[in-house]
Design brief:
2 copies of one chain form a homodimer.
Chain A lengths: L11 H9 L3 H10 L13 H17 L17 H11 L4 H21 L2 H12 L5 E4 L15 E5 L4 E5 L7 E4 L8 E10 L2 E11 L11 E5 L12 E5 L2 E4 L8 E3 L5 E3 L4 H10 L2 H28 L1 E4 L5 E3 L4 H31 L17 H29 L11 H8 L9 H20 L5 H10 L10 H11 L12 H26 L5 H7 L1 H25 L5 H20 L1 H6 L5 H18 L3 H6 L15 H7 L1
Parallel strand pairs in A: 1-5, 2-5
Antiparallel strand pairs in A: 2-3, 3-9, 4-8, 5-6, 7-8, 10-11, 12-13
Helix pairs in contact in A: 2-4, 3-5, 4-8, 4-9, 5-6, 5-8, 8-9, 8-10, 9-10, 9-17, 9-18, 9-20, 10-11, 10-12, 10-17, 12-13, 12-15, 12-17, 14-15, 14-17, 15-16, 15-17, 15-18, 17-18, 18-20
């Protein structure tokens, strides 16, 4: 068994600077905000009290200018997408209902008006949206169609005589479902509906539909129901919306990509209906990146609490009679430290997503005219955002659960925050795209990229099934070879060639795994084109397809981790993060070692040495666990769990 | 790839009879009880409303005679332990706060008086306990000692002059913590404390301590705090108890195993202090079996809801244009069906535990005199109960989480039950013994058994660390060879020798895995005896030790599954359960195939065929998924989730 040399004490502040990255000022500002007693963590409030408080907090965010970041300057914004997403991410360390309501209001509702509307909508709504004088909903999901939103059933039929659209809900399954801001506060909704001109369907478009009058009463024809109690996020007023032939002016079509003229003529910048739909959805990629970031922050809070507790909580006496801190036990380290390493990997991947979004989003202050040329990296970014969202939110769900258990009975008390973190983030794996569906989207992009790179495979018949389950456009893949080269350049080996601590070996395993999964997947799906039952062929390969997507995102995470630490100055902080990166890489390989062996890339001896290496890294990193969570610099107000402050308990003992 | 022949339609009623087992009348009675509107599932009640309602329900249970089952006839009981545990298990399909409060009152508090007390305590308390005229607490856990209860700090000092014990809490870490019935309803507490006679400590003993007067006010010297909001189970009034030199009569010592005479002389039936402590805890094995059963019931409710929903929920169109039920997708089957198979395995293991407890518990109606001879199977049962409790509760946590995600946004709504099931059962992995600690206990028993069977290994120095973390006595192991033979007798192969569907091969893998883990573990721990740092040697092997315990419980589950179906008449129901048993066995092997290969028992070709076989079994079982959950016969009132009743939604559409 080989293990790294002992690690020197490191400075959490130096690591924090690396983690804070490009929008560090936004982070510092958010840490200041957390000190404001208006944003203190509360537990045990009833639903209506919580909703009222969250609305007050929304007002405070608007007052402090938080809502401006992602909007054009001329409508009261400050045109900084990167800061906007970073601020959102930081908000997730505190009140997660506030996070989600802010996301609904400024990300989804405001974002839809911004990205799908034109000047007339921007001028009419955005200033009030930013100032929170106008609250609104993003009404896409229906009871019967959540993942498959291209087939939603609400209709918007153009009535040429009246120059109006008629919005209608044809049945229970077409109700707009789980809509934030609907049950209590929203006045308008951006409603996604099948646009009908004459007898012709033009596919899904977005419409601005008033739902409440100035007194808060539902408007005629609009039925609003409350979704009631949820597992968490009860400060968000989710509701259901149904429309009984509700009439809106023709101008309420958000006409960035398509329009209907006075005479009923339909025009569009994107002729292909599927492509048009995915382009519309693509403008909303911001939501997925935001959810991934929010999941990451909540996970950091949970890890901070559990590691502080594990560092001080003692149970069972050791050989010298003194009781042993529970984090000294290998089983406890195994629960928390690989999860911590993955949180770092996800953090670095998130930094890259945010920067990528910032760079590839057209300047919000530029005038709208024609459809702008798409940034060449945009489609890859969209797929990567989908994949990282899936992995980050599953990681949040499992890690917060583990932290709860690692804190024992104390972890079950609401005052210790873990129950709230778990319950509030639980639905992150579902909203902004069900994770399984999102991974299929990633795989589809990889397959398409594969075809582009390696020649003519007829994927059209087979990919139909994949395509039908995807919710975004086909994007170009980051080739495995390009990634490998970048990683090799960035991460010189820190040990002998060919050992498991050799970065080249780790990277080879990661990239080979993705490539092999993809090659064999393409072969299997190709068969579906000529199969009698193409669905059966596709379906039998679904686990294979998901494995390929996961392998790709693992690659993305490793690349981001390596990239994130490559420019750190030499010193104990760099050494510590290299060891943490090793733990991420080796624990990932360890978890999938059965598959890697089956495909000929691992001997039994090396496989066993992986387990020993992960254990050795756990032992080596254990003394630095507190430093590694301190580097997140979760605000003290967000670490409100008494179990995270053993000094206080000792004082009162 | 081999796959089983298609399965014929099966009758859920026939399977239900097999599952209901020996105490089927108790189950039928519980299903009737669920129809009583007093026990209807409620969501969204505030804590105090919920506590009041749960207390009312406790009264109804007592009125209906549910509380009698586990007590002696002469004190108002009906002396049927098996029925008592089975009734408790069924209760877990409904109100889980009621379940836990019933467990505290009649299982822990009543059970402690019954098993640790003598006639004078029985006569004084049991009739009122059974009738719910007296509510009480089981005050063992302290803030500073949860798993390591042998070292709790509360003291009970005998004052010979006054002929009293003085109960005292020496500091914050000695507060009794998370105590059910403490915050609101309890009048008495069974308090576990270090018994001091003169300057001498006699170890932990149990004392009856009044905590509230008839008006409900805390008695002098007793401090009661409310634990406040929890993740779930908010109908249970958990609190903290501290005692400031509270005096109780000498007779309040529960003196089944030890006593203090008027002159302060300490006498005991069990001289060894450690053995005495573990014997006291051993009488409480019932609690662990009850928790395992409760976890199983909650999991069955979740699987019933998710499978009914997955069977009817459609998303994305197939080749013929019709939308596909989500349970037709392999990824969805992979989420739910192996979990369903494991739930069956756990159910059969639970039937055996309950019967074992019933058989090995001395007749409650027999008079107490000397310490009765221990039933030869009792110690094995205690360790098996600990292991099954750990695996069953982790299975509940992961499966209910999976069901929530499998139901998408609908799964996040409280009305669909999954949030409550998740939140209420979450702490099951912690209470009645932290799962990781319990698995260590199992491993310790296996090691001791190993020594007994295979000769003299000096485990004393090394086992000290294991022993210090265990909370029960050393028990004899069920030998791997005995289990293997029983399995071979019970399960004739249903396919060619040596294929993965060959039961002999599956059983060989399971038993060899346990044996190999155990042999190598014994060698590693032996080294600890002569090591400079024995803790380091033990700690480095902790994951190995936990793996051995898991492998043993996997064996127990497979044996129980095979045993459970061996006497079924031939027919489609038997065929269906054989396929489900294959899915349990093969998905368990698949999950650990990396380790099995590393130790030389799997070729790459066979390993890949395992994956294909699990996929094939998922496809074969999918049409019968509804039958398999119908066979649980969860009462309709407990399947209160609207998503589980698609017919109703269709009617209202």
């Amino acid at each position: 068994m080989s293990s790294p040399t002992p690690l020197e004490p490191a400075d959490a502040g130096i690591i924090r600077e690396v983690l804070d990255g490009r929008w560090r000022e936004t982070r510092e500002r958010a840490r200041e905000l957390a000190k404001d007693p208006r944003f203190a963590v509360e537990v045990g409030e009833g639903t209506e009290t919580q909703r009222a408080r969250v609305l007050e907090r929304m007002g405070a965010l608007a007052e402090l200018g938080y809502s401006k970041l992602g909007f054009p300057t001329r409508y009261g914004g400050s045109n900084d997408i990167g800061a906007s997403i970073t601020g959102f991410e930081m908000l997730a360390m505190g009140d997660l209902s506030l996070l989600v309501k802010a996301g609904v209001q400024w990300g989804l509702f405001g974002g839809a008006i911004l990205h799908l509307g034109t000047e007339r909508h921007h001028a009419a709504y955005l200033p009030a949206v930013v100032k929170l004088e106008l609250l609104g909903c993003f009404a896409m999901t229906e009871s019967g169609h959540g993942s498959d939103v291209a087939n939603l059933r609400t209709t918007a039929t153009f009535d040429q005589d009246a120059d109006e659209f008629v919005i209608n809900t044809p049945g229970v399954s077409a109700r707009k479902e789980y809509i934030g801001n609907a049950a209590r506060d929203g006045r308008l909704a951006v409603v996604f509906a099948q646009l009908m001109t004459g007898a012709e369907s033009q596919g899904v478009h977005a419409f601005v539909v008033p739902i409440r009058d100035a007194t808060g009463a539902a408007l005629p024809g609009v039925r609003i129901e409350d979704c009631g109690l949820k597992a968490g996020l009860n400060g968000v007023d989710n509701g259901r919306l149904s429309f009984d032939h509700v009439r809106i002016p023709r101008d309420n079509l958000l006409n960035r990509y398509s329009d209907v003229a006075r005479d009923g003529t339909y025009t569009t910048l994107i002729d292909n209906q599927t492509k048009r739909f995915f382009t519309m959805l693509g403008t909303l990629v911001q939501g997925r990146i935001s959810v991934a970031g929010g999941a990451g922050s909540a996970t950091k809070v949970a890890l901070t609490i559990a590691i502080r507790y594990g560092d001080s909580r003692r149970q069972f006496a050791g050989p010298d009679g003194a009781e042993i801190p529970v984090l000294d036990y290998l089983a406890h380290q195994r629960k928390l430290l690989p999860a911590l390493a993955k949180s770092y990997a996800l953090h670095f991947a998130q930094l890259e997503l945010v920067a990528g979004l910032h760079e590839t989003t057209p300047d919000l202050d530029a005038p709208l005219d024609e459809l702008p040329a798409e940034h060449p990296d945009r489609r890859e970014l969209e797929a990567r955002a989908a994949g990282v969202k899936a992995i980050a939110t599953w990681h949040a769900t499992s890690t917060i659960q583990t932290c709860r258990e690692a804190c024992g009975g104390a972890g079950y008390l609401a005052v210790n925050r873990l129950p709230g973190l778990k319950a509030d983030t639980d639905v992150f794996t579902t909203f902004e795209g069900d994770n399984t569906v999102l991974l299929q989207l990633v795989a589809k992009e990889l397959l398409t990229g594969y075809r582009d790179h390696f020649g003519e495979l007829d994927m059209m018949g087979t990919a139909r099934f994949v395509a039908d389950q995807a919710v975004e456009t086909v994007v170009e893949r980051v080739g495995g070879r390009r990634l490998l080269q970048r990683l090799r350049d960035a991460a010189p080996s820190n040990s002998e060639d060919g050992t498991i601590f050799d970065h080249d070996w780790q990277i080879d395993i990661f990239t080979w795994r993705e490539k092999h999964l993809l090659e064999t997947l393409a072969k299997r799906l190709r068969r579906a084109a000529s199969a009698d039952d193409p669905f059966a062929v596709f379906n039998a390969a679904q686990d294979h397809l998901l494995a390929a997507a996961r392998a790709h995102i693992d690659n993305v995470l490793l690349a981001a981790f390596v990239h994130g630490i490559e420019n750190m100055p030499a010193g104990p902080e760099h050494e510590l993060l290299v060891a943490l990166c090793d733990l991420f890489a080796l624990s990932t390989i360890e978890a999938d070692r059965g598959w890697i062996w089956e495909h000929g890339r691992l001997t039994a001896a090396r496989s066993k040495s992986l387990i020993a290496a992960v254990n050795g890294l756990c032992a080596a990193l254990r003394p630095h666990a507190r430093t590694l969570v301190d580097a997140f610099e979760v605000p003290d107000a967000a670490i409100s769990a008494p179990i995270a402050w053993p000094e206080d308990a000792a004082t009162s003992a």
